[in-house]
Fold Histidinol-phosphate aminotransferase.
Amino acid sequence: MSIPSNLPLRNDLAGEEPYGAPQLDVPVCLNVNENPYAPSEAVIDTILERVRAVAPTLNRYPDREHAELRKALAAYLRKESQVELEPEQIWAANGSNEIMLQVFQAFGGPGRTALGFAPTYSMYPEYARDTFTAWTTVPRNADFTLDVDAAVKAILETRPSIVLITSPNNPTGTPATMEQIEALLAACEKAGVDGAPEGTHPLLVVDEAYIEFRRPGKPSATTLIADHPNLAVSRTMSKAFAYAGARVGYIAANTGVIDSLRIVRMPYHLSAVTQAVALAALDHTDEQLAQVGHLRDTRDALVDWFRQQTYKGQPIQVADTDSNFVFFGVFDDREWIFNELLNRGVLIRDVGPEGWLRVCMGTDEEMEAFKSAFLEVIRLAE
Ligand code: PMP
């Protein structure tokens, strides 16, 4: 980083670093919770057809309201989450990162507070910083589940404008139950909001970036939208949908929330090419999601495997996970483990509470490479 001191960078940004995990060229990359399976030839053909079809229109601005994409996402949610939503109840952007920034732009701001549950996704404080919103957290229980009593108390006392719950949580993988989400919703529906007129209630945002990896039969929070005007559920095509490079996220909520986001979005924020590429994947939903079941099995097998290992005579702890990654520890020097794995060509993530590490699910070969490198490293530590 080299920013000359005579540049008028915002005072609160002085000394800040751009966010992001290292992008290293190593054989086994298990660090950013991607899906390891590339789009199929059939999907690639449809991408090419759809992009070819919009190419002659690129002198014009794209459909600002991305109506066709919102309709296709509503159809996807009908199938994946058994929820009936109108296209007007869905809104897409360049990754759920952009969606969340729009949420903070519309509902945060000076004098407002956003509340989350730590440890959680490390981008949230950045959206808060960038929108001059205060960021505060309630600690999770020792097993990383939500401390509902503390959460409800904090909502009523802090009077935040945004309550942000990640389910499954990143970096821990912990799901929130529907009962927990409903308890938080009830608290939001009772609480007031500092910096907003009397009678205003906090918006509860459930970040479901990893929801497709949940255990079969579990519902999505999108099924609560019909009864809760102050609920929004953010999702992404980056993870289970195996489309991180396409940069498509979306949010489902009642139209009041969506119309609020429409106020702050950049005009034509979603390019015609992005819309075409997203629609191409949605033409092949089953294929794009084909590996989700296998990745779930890989995750469960890795959790079992970890639970049979020891580090310096102690069992390795693993957080319960409904996601495509596993959070494990506790190591006296996690950086050493991280670096020794990297020396063996395996990149994972050193994130979250001290002593814990996160690994995301790769192909079968990548998982074998991870496990054998990990065994070598912990034996070295004995
Ligand atoms: N939410 C959570 C919890 C995440 O872990 C991530 C990605 N790491 C995102 C949102 C952002 O995903 P994207 O912008 O790719 O949709």
